[in-house]
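Weekly sync, protein design subgroup
Attendees: M.S., D.O., the rotation student, P.L. (late)

Item 1: inverse folding check
M.S. brought a backbone from last month's batch and wanted to see whether the design step gives back something sensible before we order anything. D.O. pointed out we never logged the input encoding, so this time it goes straight into the notes. Structure tokens as presented (459 positions):
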């Protein structure tokens, strides 16, 4: 897309055709989304081409990689510096944070979609509304978790209410950050998005590592992690000020859209995590530990292609959707295939890095965990392709997959490989359903409704 086209208001934004105008006229830009902008605002120019897209993909991939490494360092440091019982308590709290973060992911998806479907003149005002809404959602979520912290403390066998309440407080900046990511993502400002990811992610996870090193307790770790998350989010708010400096616009059905997207993210989280619980329940203790190591490999395979969805999401929300979805899905599948081949060829090397020689028995079936991660990564991308047009049907397939995993593992759990094979089969079927739906859409030439801006009012 040229710079001229990138700065032209699209038909999916807040503006309406002129009186007497024909929306199906010969205007080549009719119905087109406004396209990407450069790193810190303005038309993208050459950045909208393949070279700029690859550059943006590289920036986001590096940023996400740094955040994931910092999260990994926190887990490794906790395992090494805390007694097993305390590390178990820390791991359960970090998992609680992950569950609460599905709201941030849902908010990010909705924010990106709303921004990319608007005309450039309205983007700052919409961004201002999203920023205000992100504060509100984060505060409500934090208060809700704090309110039920006595129950959570008992369920997770924590040492006190304060550490659980701190997790609730941490969800405020995490949710806020999700909205900020979406604002930058929708503008396709990849450099700004990458910097937001790094600032908020490193402040949060390295804060946790610092708290662990200084205090050596679960409470100290969570407290400093929460402080780091708050500081990072405040810096991030300052970073998006230039693109949210306007009077907010009211967006219809904003709460409904975020609830749906968060529900979809939660279903995805359950589908990609429930196997660990099932393995813990059905497999003997040592074998469940072996499965946990395999699950780490599956998570790496799941998250590695995430940058593709981040870059492609705005392009799947406007008239670039058809080509973008196919090409990006192929890229995700290709990355997954490379990972699986690598695990087939070098399983012992990966095991020595992830778990150590005591897990050598996993070598023969490690590739199955690669299939699990790769298939779920493709399913995740295809879910995002549906969220990009506010399609609310895809979530049902995720819950069916959850039921299938539970039923399958309940019947076949004789070994680590057997449990993994059941999960891999369901993940492949889920991805296959998504690919089939994509192919059907292309064959029919379906035009997906772009929702979310049925009316915009100055608020």
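Designed sequence read out in the meeting:
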């Amino acid at each position: 897309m040229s710079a001229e086209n990138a700065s032209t208001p699209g038909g999916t934004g807040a503006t309406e055709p002129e009186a007497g105008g024909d929306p199906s006229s010969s205007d080549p830009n009719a119905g087109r989304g406004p396209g990407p902008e450069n790193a810190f605002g303005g038309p993208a120019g050459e950045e909208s081409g393949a070279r700029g897209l690859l550059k943006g993909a590289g920036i986001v991939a590096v940023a996400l990689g740094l955040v994931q490494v910092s999260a990994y360092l926190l887990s490794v440091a906790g395992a090494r510096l805390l007694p097993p019982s305390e590390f178990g308590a820390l791991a359960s709290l970090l998992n609680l944070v992950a569950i609460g973060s599905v709201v941030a992911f849902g908010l990010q998806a909705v924010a990106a979609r709303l921004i990319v479907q608007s005309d450039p003149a309205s983007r700052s005002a919409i961004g201002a509304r999203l920023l205000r809404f992100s504060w509100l959602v984060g505060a409500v979520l934090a208060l809700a978790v704090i309110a039920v912290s006595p129950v959570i403390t008992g369920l997770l066998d924590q040492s006190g209410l304060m550490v659980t309440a701190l997790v609730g407080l941490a969800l405020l900046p995490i949710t806020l950050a999700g909205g900020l990511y979406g604002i930058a993502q929708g503008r396709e400002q990849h450099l700004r998005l990458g910097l937001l990811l790094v600032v908020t992610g490193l402040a949060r996870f390295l804060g946790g590592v610092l708290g662990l090193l200084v205090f050596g307790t679960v409470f100290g770790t969570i407290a400093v992690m929460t402080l780091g998350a708050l500081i990072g989010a405040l810096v991030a708010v300052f970073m998006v000020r230039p693109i949210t400096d306007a009077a907010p616009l009211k967006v219809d059905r904003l709460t409904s859209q975020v609830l749906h997207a968060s529900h979809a993210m939660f279903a995805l989280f359950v589908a990609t995590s429930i196997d660990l619980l099932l393995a813990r329940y059905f497999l003997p203790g040592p074998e469940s530990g072996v499965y946990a190591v395999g699950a780490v490999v599956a998570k790496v395979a799941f998250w590695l292609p995430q940058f593709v969805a981040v870059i492609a999401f705005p392009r799947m929300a406007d008239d670039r959707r058809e080509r973008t979805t196919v090409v990006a899905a192929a890229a995700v599948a290709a990355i997954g295939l490379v990972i699986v081949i690598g695990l087939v060829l070098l399983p012992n090397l990966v095991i020595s890095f992830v778990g150590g020689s005591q897990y050598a028995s996993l070598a023969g079936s490690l590739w199955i965990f690669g299939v699990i991660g790769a298939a779920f990564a493709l399913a995740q991308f295809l879910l995002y392709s549906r969220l990009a047009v506010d399609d609310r049907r895809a979530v049902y397939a995720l819950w069916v997959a959850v039921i299938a995993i539970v039923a399958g593992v309940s019947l076949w759990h004789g070994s680590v490989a057997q449990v993994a094979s059941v999960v891999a089969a369901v993940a492949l079927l889920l991805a296959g359903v998504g690919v089939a739906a994509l192919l059907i859409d292309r064959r029919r030439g379906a035009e997906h409704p772009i929702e979310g801006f049925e009316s915009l009012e100055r608020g």
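Discussion: The beta strands are 249-251, 456-458. The chain has a mean pLDDT of 84.
Action: P.L. to compare against the previous round before Friday.
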